[in-house]
Amino acid sequence: MSHLSERPEKPVVGVPLPHESAVQHVTGAALYTDDLVYRTKDVLHAYPVQVMKAHARITALRTEPALKVPGVVRVLTKEDVPGVNDAGMKHDEPLFPDEVMFHGHAVAWVLGETLEAARLGAAAVEVELEELPSLVTLEEAMAAGSYHGARPVMETGDIEAGFAESAHVFTGEFQFSGQEHFYLETHASLAQIDENGQVFIQSSTQHPSETQEIVAHVLGVPSHEVTVQCLRMGGGFGGKEMQPHGFAAIAALGAKLTGRPVRFRLNRTQDLTMSGKRHGFHAKWRIGFDAEGRIQALDATLVADGGWSLDLSEPVLARALCHIDNTYWIPNARVAGLIAKTNTVSNTAFRGFGGPQGMLVIEDILGRCAPKLGLDPTELRERNFYRPGQGQTTPYGQLVTQAERLTTVWEQVKDRAGLADRKREIAAFNAAHPHTKRALALTGIKFGISFNLTAFNQGGALVLIYKDGSVLINHGGTEMGQGLHTKMMQVAATTLGIPLHKVRLAPTRTDKVPNTSATAASSGADLNGGAIKNACEQLRERLLRVAATQLGANPSDVRIVDGVARALGGEKELAWDDLVRTAYFQRVQLSAAGFYRTEGLHWDAESFRGSPFKYFAYGAAATEVEVDGFTGAYRIRRVDIVHDVGDSLSPMIDIGQVEGAFVQGAGWLTLEDLRWDTGDGPNRGRLLTQAASTYKLPSFSEMPEEFNVTLLENAHEEGAVYGSKAVGEPPLMLAFSVREALRQAAAAFGPAGVSVELASPATPEAVYWAIQAARRGGAPENGHAAEGAGGRVRTDAEALSGA
Fold first, then answer.
1. Which of 483, 578, 586 minimizes the C-alpha distance to 528?
2. What is the predicted pLDDT for the residue at 780?
3. What are the CA-CA distances from residue 147 to residues 69, 310, 637 (Å)?
4. CA separation (Å) from 485 to 321, 332, 462, 531?
5. Contact 343, 684 (CB under 8 A)
């Protein structure tokens, strides 16, 4: 067993504990960025001057009227920027643009004594425009050839030989929607300047180090003049990985110019109309199967809707390509990727980071093709699984390890969910109910853990032991409700061998742990846990030497368990507090900086080959739904999940993450329907779903009536911190089972063997049109083809004949 993964006697990790801030959360005592405004004197409020056109050139910007509004202190424009007028890492996101690139683009910011004064000042700013042609939809961008960024191609095997050897070849297209993060806390920052000109920013950010870097660029100062702190976030889900930087820069610029603290907070409508979403995708594909239904070849092109700037679209697309195989071995593949440039908000990271989009494509293909092949969808999926011991590699060349876990979680779900008996019960129910149908679908996941960019796979920590034996830990990860801080406290307590109450955690700050990576890619516990463990081990080794002299033993024979040091075979004890005090008087250093880097990674972005992931997380879910044939309305009757988190660091936290991710994934796939005004009127490009009243989020009513989540047992992960695996993102894709169950329920309204297309999101309306198509034998009705998944499955013969 590796040093990193080995657990000591009586570890604190693995104990089910509540979230470290749970009491503060439920009592309202937990502080978020905007709460700090009320503890800060003389704060100015920032408000955006938004332009409500999808695409236009600014010909004049007059700020004088705003300065006449009572309470307005200053209007920020590009002339005020002392450094670089850009808020992105690709230098394609001007903080103060000359060209409006999406409906609601902010072109200036007003600072006021009150938020209302700033709002009225923003309304008074006069902007003259030359309106320009706009591309609002992904289809429009593709038709215009509007693309930006990298154009990766992933290839393996011999694609043409694979198709030549296929007994069945199908083609199709699939377009699916993005998703709004809808975190409870909108984007917020509070910037202050001290007497030396040092900038201190409280920011709701998943990436404090990058926020620091962008702010320093905008202000034209070195990074050591900027400190960024993140207390906690009221949700992030990827939406606060890249996009907070420019907002923090606005607050910092205002504070620098006025000498007063500046508060920035978007209201909900502003957040929805100004911040990026999950990328919607278009996929065009051709797939070949042998006579037994095993995949022989896949040729696909994925187009991501990047929005107006690149943001994180390139790595999102890369991960989508790397996950199009999901749990299936595809011996011959060619998958190309493109990023469409549209006049909408710049789409960004969202839980899963492109993985869900790539995996959804192959799951949709199998769901549509199974009836064509005369196979049960569960059987078709099983036949194409990666197999243990076969030396099978992904299309990008990484060996698939632990493939046996895929089979294990799959079989455990089948057993725990009683699939065989329930399918018989469902068949009997459907035969007796012509207007209501049920279905039960089973899907699996294989998700790679690590950042695709190798350099990001590093973490840092600073651990301090005080004379009284109390411990303070700092690490580079941010807390957005996912329980990272809870796990890190458990790691520190376990490594030092002390009770959890001895450990306290400090807010994430760039002046404590520098150059950290974003809390993203599900890597927060792996990277920061490794760094904390490293720092605590340095301290423990020093303390063991002190304890050894006190106990009259060799340091290698001393153990610290439950806050007591003992030598093996000895009866003498030394309490932790006494040990620390003794170490202090012996002038032993009681602080340590820890570091961790993920080993064994390699990625060549040019050839699109390598081993970018430390390991794969596996899971399987069975979902039963009931669908009404008159309306398409449905309910989720039962969900059974078995998920692989390795040897869990904190089981209660991990089960909560699995549950939350599943529901969020189900929201993306079935409810959350982003709509823009695509007409040629004055509101072209306007987001229509800009409030909770028009954008449907999952709630208690969408929760499964029976929800069973089990963590895979005996799943120790060699080479990861205390044998654990990442949990944040992978379970979101378990929600594919909901969509596939809805597809099968819709098909049950038609003749046996009908192949059903299903839009994504599969809203009740979309399910209704799928039911209507099933009743017609699978043919989409004229006028409603666009409501479906976009292009029906065609056989090879149909494709050749032009059908």
1. 483
2. 62
3. 42, 10, 43
4. 32, 43, 14, 13
5. no
d(CA 237, CA 247): 18
Residue 381 near residue 327, CB atoms below 8 Å = yes
Non-local CB neighbours of 74 within 8 Å, separated by 6+ positions: 44, 67, 110, 111, 254, 257, 258
Helices (H), 613-759: 651-670, 736-747
**Can you tell me which residue has the tokens 């980071």?**
353
Residue 508: C-alpha distances to residues 206, 462, 490, 498, 536 (Å): 10, 11, 17, 23, 18
The rounded distance, in Å, linking the Cα atoms of 674 and 719 is 41
Summarised one tens digit per residue, pLDDT across range 93-147 is 999 999 999 999 999 999 999 999 999 999 999 999 999 999 999 999 999 999 9
Kindly report the pTM of this predicted structure.
0.96
Q: Is the pLDDT of residue 625 over 70?
A: yes
CA 363 to CA 375: how far, in whole Å? Answer: 15
Nearest-angstrom CA–CA distance, 803 and 797: 9
Answer yes or no: are the C-beta atoms of 287 and 295 closer than 8 Å.
Answer: yes
Radius of gyration of the chain (CA): 28
Whole-angstrom distance, CA of residue 614 vs CA of residue 447: 11
Q: Pick from 437, 770, 367: which is nearest to 635 by CA?
A: 437
**Angle at the Cα of 245 from the Cα atoms of 201 and 138, rounded to 5 degrees:** 160
Distance CA 67, CA 108 (A): 13
Query: Quick count: other Cβ atoms within 10 Å of Cβ 345?
Result: 25
Output the 3-class SS for 398-433: CECCCHHHHHHHHHHHHHHCCHHHHHHHHHHHHHHC
Cα(368)–Cα(721) distance, integer angstroms: 40
Q: Where are the beta strands (DSSP E) in 510-590?
A: 558-561, 564-567, 573-575
Residue 61: per-residue pLDDT: 98
Catalytic (active-site) positions: 729
Tens digits of per-residue pLDDT, 455-490?
Answer: 999 999 999 999 999 999 999 999 999 999 999 999
CA 566 to chain centre: 44
Q: For the chain, what is the largest distance between any 2 Cα atoms, rounded to a whole number of angstroms?
A: 88
pLDDT of residue 793: 52
CA nearest to 636, candidates 707, 732, 733: 707
State phi, psi for 462 to the nearest 5 degrees. -135, 120
Instruction: Please report where in the chains the tokens 């404590």 appear, as a residue.
Output: 512
The SS3 of residue 744 is: helix
Rounded Cα gap, residues 266 and 609, in angstroms: 41
Per-residue buried b or exposed e for 646-680, using 16+ beta carbons within 10 Å of the residue's own CB: bbbbbbebbbbbbbbbbbbbbbbbbbbbbebbbee
Tokens linked to 243: 């996009």
Which residue, 111, 50, 102, is CA-closest to 80? Answer: 111
Q: Which residues pair with 464 in a beta bridge?
A: 472, 591
Number of residues that this document lists for the chain: 803
- Alpha-carbon dihedral angle through residues 123, 125, 126, 130, given to the nearest 10 degrees: -90
> Whose CA is closest to 621, among 710, 511, 714, 754?
710
Say whether 134 sits in a helix, a strand or coil.
coil
**Helices and strands counted in the chain (H then E):** 20, 30
CA–centroid distance for 379 within its chain: 30
8 Å CB contact between 502 and 470: yes
